[in-house]
Automatic annotation (TrEMBL):
Domain Ribose-phosphate pyrophosphokinase N-terminal per the UniProt entry, residue ranges: 316-431
Protein name: Ribose-phosphate pyrophosphokinase N-terminal domain-containing protein
Highest classification ranks of the organism: Eukaryota, Metazoa, Ecdysozoa, Arthropoda, Hexapoda
Pfam families: PhyH (PF05721), Pribosyl_synth (PF14572), Pribosyltran_N (PF13793)
Region ranges (Disordered): 512-544
A GO MF label: magnesium ion binding
UniProt keyword annotations, A-Z: Nucleotide biosynthesis
Entry similarity comment: Belongs to the ribose-phosphate pyrophosphokinase family.
Entry superkingdom: Eukaryota
Keyword Lipid metabolism: no
Organism of provenance: Aquatica leii
GO cellular component terms listed in the entry, alphabetical order: cytoplasm; ribose phosphate diphosphokinase complex
Any GO BP: purine nucleotide biosynthetic process
Length: 662
C-alpha cells in the first residue's frame, strides 16, 4: 500500500473544493455537519431592495418575473390579500432585482468552494411566513431538498438561505439535523394536517436531535441537499422573510425519476407547470426553464455583439450542417447573429442535398461543421455548402471546423497516402477562403491548404479547468500517455509549475500503419533482384515492451493530456498502471472527445476519475452513459475568432498563454 504524504490529505474532503474562500476549519465543519452559517454575509441594501420589490409585487404596484406564486391554503377562505396571502414566490431567477441576491459575489465565492466554478441557479424562493400562523399552517416538516431535484450528483448541489430580518424560534427559524447529509434520500409525503402544495416531509424522525439556526439580517446558511431540515411556525405578530436559492454545478446530469421515490413530486410539479402554461414539458424541461447560469468557467470575455458601423446582419451569415447544431447555436447567440437558413438533408439514395434559404451574395459566410463519427457525410455536407456559397457569389467563405477529420492521416504510411492533404485540396477547390480549426493532430497540416488556416488552442481553457475544478491540483503531476505527447505534457507542466511523468512502452501501432518516411512506395524492378548468397540473418520477432512509468506519481494526482480521445483502451491501460504506481486520482484531459464504440462503459469501469473534453465534437449521448465525462465550452473562443476575422482584426490575442507545443 502506498503511503500518502500529509500535504495531500485534502483528498479526504468529499463535500467541498479547494479554494481560498473557506478555511480548513470551515471546510471541516461543513464536511461533518452538512451546513455552515456565515454571519452578516449579504449586504442590507440588497436585502431591502429585494424586500421592497416583493412587497410592491404583492400589492400589484410593480411587475416581477416570477414563475410561481404560492398562497397559504389556510388563509384563502379569509379576506387576506397581498402580502398576508402570499407566503412564497419561487423561480425568480430572471427577475433582475431578485437576481442581485442570487449572483451576489461574496456568496458566489463561497459557492465555488462547495460545488466548483460552473454555477447554475436552479431553484429560487422568497419565503414570507405570515404572522399569527397556526402550528400546522406555516411549519415545514423535516425534509430533504434533493427530493425535488431530478439531477445529480447530490454533492454538486447546495442551498443558500439568507435571513432578511431577525429570525428566531418564535417566528419560525430553520432547524437542521447535523450530519444527516451523509445518509440517503428518503421517501417523502404529506404529514397530517398539512395542506400547502409541495410541503412534503419525512415521517417518524421526531426522535432525531435538531439544531435551531437563529439568525440576524444578512446571515446566510449554506447546506447540502440531503441534509434533513425544516422550519417552525411564525407565532409572532410580524412577517418572517427569508430569501433562498439552490445552486448546482452546471455539469450535473438529469436522471429519470420514473419508478423511484421521486415520482410523486414529479407529477405534482408537472401539474403545477401545466396550470401555468407549461403543459407540453417534462420534468427536465421544467427545471431547465427555471434555471439560470450565475458563473461559468471560461477564459477571456469577448463582446456579446460584433461592433460594426454597418448592421452586422447585412454582410455576415452563419450556416451549419448536421454535425454539431448545438455548437452552432451557441456561437450564433454569442455573436447575436441569426443562424442562416440552410437545409442539409439526404435523399433516399443517400446523396447530400443543400438548400440555402437566404441570399449570400457579397456576404461573409461562416460555415460551422465539425468531424464526428459520421465523418464522410460531414465532409460532403461541408464541401457542398461551400460550393453552393461560392456559386452564389459570396464575398468570402470561412469554414469553422473545430475537429478536422482525417487529421491523423497526415503522414505517409506503407502503400497508403496522405489523406489530410487530399482533403485540404478538396476543401480549397470547393471555394473556402479561410479555415478555423482547433488543436490539429499535427500543426504541419496547415501547409496542405491553399488558403489561410488558424489553428486555435484549447489549452488555456483546460489549464483553467485544472486550476479551478481539480482539488489540490498543486499535488498533481502531468502525465504523457506516450513519448509522443511528452512535449504537450511538458508545456502544461511548465505553466502549472508541476512535475511530469511519461508512460513508456505503450502498445505499438500496427506494422501497416507505421510511418516509413516515403512520399510514395516505389516498386522494386525484377531485373535488379539478386541472390542473397548464404542467407540473411533472421530478425527476431517484435516484442511488446513492458509498460513503465518514468517519473514519480506515488501519492499524487495524475493528469493525462492529449489532443484526442477516441478508442480509450490505451488510456484505461495507462490509468491502471498509474493506479498501481500509487496515483490516488486520475484525470484525462483532451481537446477532442470522439469517444467511439464502448468508450463510455470502459471509462465508467476504469480507475479514471474524470475525462474532460471540450465541445468541439458532440458527445451528449456518451455523457448520459458515463457520469465521469465532463465538458468545457469553447464556443466563446470560436465566436471571438469569427468576430475578429469578420472585422479584419488581429488574431494574436487568441494565442496568448499558448506555446508551440500545445
Amino acid at each position: 500500500m502506498v503511503s500518502i504524504p500529509n500535504r495531500v490529505m485534502s483528498k479526504q474532503y468529499q463535500y467541498t473544493k479547494d479554494s481560498v474562500s473557506l478555511t480548513n476549519e470551515q471546510r471541516d465543519f461543513y464536511e461533518e455537519n452538512g451546513y455552515i452559517v456565515f454571519r452578516n454575509l449579504v449586504d442590507s441594501d440588497i436585502l431591502d431592495e429585494c424586500k421592497n420589490h416583493f412587497i410592491d409585487f404583492c400589492n400589484k404596484k410593480t411587475e416581477a418575473v416570477v414563475l410561481t406564486v404560492m398562497k397559504d391554503v389556510h388563509l384563502k377562505s379569509t379576506n387576506a390579500k397581498g402580502e398576508l396571502l402570499i407566503n412564497k414566490i419561487q423561480n425568480f431567477l430572471y427577475d433582475e432585482v431578485l437576481f442581485k441576491y442570487v449572483s451576489y459575489k461574496p456568496m458566489v465565492d463561497i459557492l465555488r468552494s462547495i460545488i466548483g466554478p460552473n454555477i447554475t441557479g436552479c431553484h429560487s424562493m422568497l419565503i414570507n411566513k405570515p404572522p399569527n400562523s397556526t402550528k400546522d399552517a406555516s411549519r415545514h416538516p423535516l425534509h430533504q431538498d434533493l427530493h425535488y431535484f431530478p439531477f445529480r450528483p447530490a454533492n454538486s448541489i447546495v442551498a443558500s438561505w439568507t435571513a432578511m430580518e431577525t429570525i428566531n424560534e418564535q417566528n419560525g427559524c430553520l432547524f437542521v439535523v447535523p450530519g444527516s447529509h451523509k445518509g440517503e434520500l428518503m421517501k417523502h409525503g404529506y404529514p397530517p394536517n398539512v395542506k400547502n402544495k409541495a410541503y412534503h416531509g419525512v415521517f417518524g424522525l421526531d426522535h432525531l436531535p435538531t439544531v435551531n439556526l437563529t439568525m440576524e439580517k444578512g446571515d446566510t446558511v449554506f447546506f447540502h441537499p440531503i441534509l434533513l431540515h425544516g422550519s417552525g411556525p411564525n407565532l409572532t405578530k410580524g412577517f418572517r422573510k427569508a430569501i433562498s436559492c439552490h445552486y448546482a454545478d452546471s455539469n450535473c446530469h438529469f436522471i429519470d425519476v420514473s419508478g423511484t421515490i421521486q415520482e410523486m413530486i414529479e407529477k405534482e410539479i408537472l401539474e403545477i407547470a401545466e396550470r401555468r402554461g407549461f403543459g407540453n414539458g417534462n420534468f427536465q424541461t421544467v427545471w431547465k426553464a427555471k434555471s439560470r447560469i450565475c458563473k461559468r468557467l471560461g477564459g477571456f470575455r469577448p463582446p456579446k455583439k460584433i461592433k460594426m458601423e454597418a448592421p452586422m446582419t447585412s454582410d455576415i451569415v452563419i450556416i451549419s450542417g448536421n454535425s454539431h447544431p448545438d455548437l452552432a447555436n451557441l456561437i450564433s447567440k454569442r455573436l447575436d447573429v441569426k443562424n442562416g437558413g440552410c437545409a442539409v438533408y439526404h435523399k433516399t439514395n443517400r446523396e447530400t442535398m443543400v438548400e440555402i434559404g437566404d441570399s449570400v451574395r457579397g456576404k461573409d459566410i461562416f460555415i460551422i461543421q465539425t468531424g464526428t463519427k459520421d465523418v464522410n457525410n460531414n465532409i460532403m455536407e461541408l464541401l457542398i455548402m461551400a460550393y453552393a456559397c461560392k456559386t452564389s457569389s459570396a464575398n468570402s467563405i470561412v469554414a469553422v471546423i473545430p475537429y478536422l477529420p482525417y487529421s491523423k492521416q497526415c503522414k505517409m504510411r506503407k502503400r497508403g497516402c496522405i489523406v489530410s492533404k487530399l482533403l485540404a485540396k478538396m476543401m480549397c477547390s470547393s471555394g473556402l477562403t479561410h479555415v478555423i480549426t482547433m488543436d490539429l493532430h499535427q500543426k504541419e497540416i496547415q501547409g496542405f491548404f491553399d488558403c489561410p488556416v488558424d489553428n486555435l488552442r484549447a489549452s488555456p481553457f483546460l489549464l483553467q479547468y485544472i486550476q479551478e475544478c481539480i482539488p489540490d491540483y498543486r499535488n498533481a503531476v502531468i502525465v504523457a500517455g506516450n513519448p509522443g505527447t511528452a512535449k504537450k505534457a511538458t508545456s502544461y507542466a511548465e505553466r502549472l509549475r508541476l512535475g511530469i511523468a511519461v508512460i513508456h512502452g505503450e502498445q505499438k501501432v500496427a506494422e501497416s500503419d507505421e510511418v516509413d518516411g516515403r512520399y510514395s512506395p516505389p516498386a522494386v524492378p525484377r531485373s535488379r533482384t539478386m541472390d542473397a548468397g548464404d542467407g540473411v540473418p533472421v530478425h527476431p520477432a517484435k516484442e511488446k515492451p513492458p509498460i513503465n512509468v518514468v517519473g514519480d506519481v506515488g501519492g499524487r494526482i495524475a493528469i493525462m493530456v492529449d489532443d484526442l480521445i477516441d478508442d480509450v483502451h490505451s488510456f484505461v491501460t495507462a490509468a491502471e498502471v498509474l493506479k498501481e504506481r500509487g496515483a490516488y486520482k486520475i484525470y484525462v484531459l483532451a481537446t477532442h472527445g470522439l469517444l467511439s464504440s464502448d468508450a463510455p462503459r470502459l471509462i465508467e469501469d476504469s480507475p479514471i476519475d474524470e475525462v474532460v473534453v471540450t465541445n468541439t465534437i458532440p458527445h451528449e449521448l456518451q455523457k448520459m452513459q458515463c457520469h465521469k465525462i465532463k465538458t468545457v465550452d469553447i464556443s466563446i473562443l470560436l465566436s471571438e475568432a469569427i468576430r475578429r476575422i469578420h472585422n479584419k482584426e488581429s488574431m494574436s490575442y487568441l494565442f496568448k498563454n499558448v506555446t508551440l507545443e500545445d
